[in-house]
Amino acid sequence: MRLPFQRRLGLVPQLLHQVSKIQTRSSDFSLLSRQLSSNSNFMNTQYIDVSEEVRCALFEGKPVVTLETAILTHGMPNPTNVETALRVQEIVRENGAVPATIGIIKGRIKVGLDDDTLIRLGTVKTDTFKTSYRDLPFVLSQKLNGGTTVSTTLTVSKAVDVPVMVTGGIGGVHRGGETTMDISADLVELGCTPVGVVCSGVKSILDIERTLEFLETQGVLVASFGPTKDFPAFYSRESGQLSPYNVNTSEEAAGLIHVMRNSRLRSGLVIAVPVPQESAIPRDEMEEIIKVAVSKANESGIRGKEITPYVLSQVAKSTAGRSLSTNVALIQNNAAVGAKIAVDLAKQNFKRLKPNTQGGTTKEKPDVMVIGGAVVDNITKLSEPFKVSFNSVAASPFIAIACGDVTCLDHCVRFNDLGQM
Q: For residue 38, what pLDDT band results from cuts at 50, 70 and 90?
């Protein structure tokens, strides 16, 4: 039964008094607040556009996985690159997460590429740049297209507050890097970006031992995914190097990311997933092929960000396309693992936001907070005719304050019914 109008008005001061007594529980809502704050800033970023699907997923706290596009623009030949990118997005969805493929289109960073845009980016090679972190100002200012490397994708992932990213393999210290100082920006960005990267380790064309040492220096946690600590070498399931740790399930991997973010650590972590056994190439076989490819790159004067695409193409030729098939298999497997990790992480975040009532009692009258606005009318009436003189107005006004918002009144009634007033 609805209360009389005047009685409903009378409930407003009581409601305001109750709201003033509510205290913010920062320990329960710090993660949600950080996400909302970060997403709010992100949506106003001048150079970034986010798709409707990804925007809604972020707002609702659904699991999201970011995907790089350098593998699409520079890592694989067409049409394998496009087919793989489309299939990877499908795999992420099949495993319960929302894919957020990141690319640059005409100087705009796009988060959540649709199929048509992804196909165009992977087909049109002219004026498409392999965009590392350092390249962003040029590519954006010149309104160019770009495939984002791990470093750039990490940067954008941090901006949108997505904690899980999937790639084939991260960059690292190049062979001979102790003299050339050719070290991928991926490693530096991992050292200052709290995002979990799911990959098949470091590309085997690199110096894996020195890369792991550099990651340690950067404070990046590395964990192999599986029963052993064997660190994978992209095409091969083992590299001869060991990770400091290993996790056996996606739930355990999600726990690492969960703690990393909630402890406010500044560095990221690497979840190293071995390529499926049926698609793996023996390490000794790949090592001989890679040595020849790296030697050819040096003789040809290939330097900088052109080295990786060149060596990968040489390896593909030497293996008659077998390495390309392995590359496709490992990125698809990583997408499945990464999506499962994102789903488990979302569950852990949800549990953290739920009130902890274990071992205690539930309050009969839980605190209630209403977020929003209410319309308050200030009504001024003149009780008698007034006279206007040159310097003043003479009047006897009657002033009343009333609630002008029906919704606010309904809230008062509902709280009264719940025993909150």
A: very low
